[in-house]
Amino acid sequence: VMCCDKSRHLCPNYIYPPIVIALLILSISTVEAFGFFSPSYRGNLIGQVNSLLSGRDSLFGRCKGKFSIAPRPAVEVWIEDAEEGFVDDEENLEDGEVLMKAVKAFASDPDDLSSKRFLCAGALVQRPLEPLAEKKQNRVRPVIFDAWMADAIMDRGIGGPNLQLRGALLVLDELLRVFLSHNSVYMPERKMFIVQCDSDRSQFTCASHYAAIARGFRKINDVEWPTYCVDICDEDLGMCDGLMFDPSLGVSRYTSAALRDRKSSTGTVSLEILGYLSALRVPFSFDRNMHDHERRPASFSGQIFHKPGFLPQQILAKVFNKVGAAERAGLLSDEYDSVDSLPSFHLSLVKNGQLNAELHEKSTSGHQALEIVDLVEPFIKNDLLPFIKNVTNMKDVAVSDIFVRSYGEDIRASQDSSFAKVINPTDMERRLSIPAHYDVNSAITAVIALDNVASEGKGGLYTVVGEEGMSHAALRRYFPLQAGDAVIHSFKVMHGVDIDPDCSRTSLVIWFADKLSVALSTLNEFGGESDYYSSPVWLQESEGESVADFIAGIALEARTFDYCTGKYRNNGDLPHPFESYFRSASKGNLLAITRLASFCEMGQLSSHHISSLQSLLAKIQVQYGDQRNFLVEYEEAAQSGPIKQSADLSQQLYVEGALCGNSNAQTALADSFLECTYEVVDASKRANTSEIRLIASILYALAAQQGDEGAKQSLLSMMQEDIHQGTHSKSGREDIAQAIIRVGQAALVAKPDLLKHLHT
Fold first, then answer.
1. b/e map of 531-544 (b: 16 or more CB within 10 Å)?
2. Are 480 and 461 a contacting pair, CB within 8 Å?
3. Among residues of the chain, what percentage have pLDDT more than 70?
4. How distant, in Å, are the alpha carbons of 193, 194, 228, 275 from that of 179?
5. Upper half-sphere CA count for residue 698 (Cβ side, 13 Å)
6. Cα 232 off chain centre by
7. Are 654 and 672 in contact (CB under 8 A)?
8. What stretches pass through the bilayer (predicted)?
9. Which of 80, 267, 416, 656 could serve as 261's disulfide partner, Cβ 3.0–4.6 Å?
10. How far apart are CA 171 and CA 496, in angstroms?
11. Are 101 and 124 in contact (CB under 8 A)?
12. pLDDT tens for residues 120-146?
């Protein structure tokens, strides 16, 4: 049956399709007689065969169609706004409910181009708002938006469940896009998007249910990190029934759709949805994750704790004033941060357990800055250290570093000319963020807020939730911190900072490590055994874990990479960082996979390393299907002549990170694709690279909507180039230029300021 179904050419087998199917049914019945299949299983198979026999797009219909000389036109699927009255206010809506959107999905009929076939319908309905009189204990119930979906009744004109699934995907995407567009950037109160489509066992909702599953929706109680404000209690969840979006699944699903369906509206809408998700500011729930370990998501291995009011207000005011004086005295360091190579704007007070000697040389201003340590030391010694020892079982822990971080400072004043050439000063005038990262030199980190910028959990310090190694902006959860509050996290917690352009943020950061590591760091700092390397105790104890191995790789890379030569040096008995990264990548850590891809790109691996990576890549790719079709098209372009080389190992590794939302992988992959197209000199072959350029623009767009400034600049440059060449040539570049413009508009729809620049 499958042979007949998939064949594209005339063959004698097509003369006997009824006989083949009859034999299949007979064989199933015969096997059941011997007890191999249960009646329910047999019924399922018979049902599948019957579905193949019915409908214009059935197996039997396709077999007969092979003898037709004229090819049947491709079936198109689209959505339309439902007619007025489709959702009736009196019969379909309860008191207080509001209809937000109603759509229908249709498919063309290849036998009758003037008609269309109804596939699926959906409606987005907002539930009634809670009356003020019913609000209890200062808690507001969530505002729930139900996405009601149902399939059209199956008949011979529908064409099968796959066609209905295509329609259901379009309906679901549109309803989710409308919901996010009404609740972009910040979610006032609590808002939830619930798909109501019964189950996969109903003939009226089967396609709708599977469409939701395919887009990353799960049963509500199974979603570990939802996109709504996560402190909704169990009583609220009891009000809900249906499927909820799981961003740890949905990000990769919509990323794949944006690339795979780039020529259709599905790809455009997928980019818009990812843009809205990237712009959301969802608060982190300390109650859900901190102390109730039974409710902590299994995918989250880090430890996070909250100490409200750690610093009293009178101490906080003194610390804040002294930090302000240090800033005015120019004591903040503008050395490049190791995370993003931008000016760090930090004030180092204690380093490797010792007071910063340089501040002693700054006379009055330096001495005043060091008084911050005197103010906070009693609270660290009597409160923070005992707490950390108790919750982490680290009995030999000590203070390693204390420093102040400031965000909102002017970067341009610290930029050198080379940096200014890379980043447009008009786009990055102030340090507003630091990318998500792990702390390498700290077992436990405490961050004390010195202002109220993060009080509502809509900016400031965030962590990244979901599977280990995922870093997409939609997975950020912002810590709600009042001035004086402290958040404590372990080295396994990925974190970063992002504030609004009109804000400034200052925080006091304390690193804790075991006493031996602090002593060794001090020894190396003052000219001790600089070649000696010992992995920190906390990494040794966690060796074999995905995150710990990745961090160990970072630490080794910092010790062995020669920035002058751009190569790794063999420094005594130091192992190559590849080994640590490879162990982490073998457990599925996408950050490690992306880092190994960069090693391949730089040619820093031995033949043995490359062989090991190829074996690992083969195992990873088994679990994915057509998500990589854009890479296949790239290889086909290479074989046909326009591109000089096929996708190498580094590109294939970047694909793994790019599909799961890693912005570094997306940018690196786009760079490599675009570079290959520029190598095509022949103008006649240059036109064949348009598809690769479109893929590159989507990859840049996916990274830009997460805040990657370099990707945004590359996307704008591509648009300018394609518009210019499309206007002054007859090679059809106008179409690709318009497509890339649509990509940029869709990707940045949640960022009006960038859209304004884009239109200009």
1. eebebbbbbeebee
2. no
3. 67
4. 7, 11, 12, 13
5. 29
6. 23
7. yes
8. 15-37
9. 267
10. 35
11. yes
12. 999 999 998 766 445 555 555 678 899
The pLDDT value recorded for residue 121 is 95
pLDDT tens for 436-478 read: 999 988 999 999 999 999 988 888 999 998 888 899 999 999 9
Number of H helices, E strands in the chain: 29, 21
| Residue 673 C-beta-side C-alpha neighbours within 13 Å | 31
- Pair 144, 124: CB distance under 8 Å: no
Compute the CA torsion angle 349, 354, 358, 362 (nearest 10 deg).
60
Distance CA 137, CA 505 (A): 31
CA angle (494, 496, 501) in 5-degree steps: 160
Which tokens in the block code for residue 659? 């599909």
* Residue pair 719/744 in contact by the 8 Å Cβ criterion: yes
Backbone angles phi, psi at 115, to 5 degrees: -115, 165
Q: List, in order, residues 6 or more apart from 444 with CB less than 8 Å away.
A: 388, 392, 394, 397, 488, 489, 490, 491, 511, 512, 513
Buried b (16+ CB within 10 A) or exposed e, 166-185: bbbbbbbbbbbbbbbeebbe
Residues of the chain with pLDDT under 50: 1-16, 20, 24-26, 28-69, 132-133, 188-189, 230-231, 290-300, 411-428, 523, 525-532, 728, 730
Q: Mean pLDDT, the chain, as a whole number?
A: 76
Burial class (CB in 10 A: 0-12, 13-18, 19+), 276: buried
Give CA–CA dist 519/530, Å, rounded: 13
CATH code, 302-522: 2.60.120.620
| Domain locations along the chain | 2-65, 77-132+139-283, 302-522, 546-621, 626-759
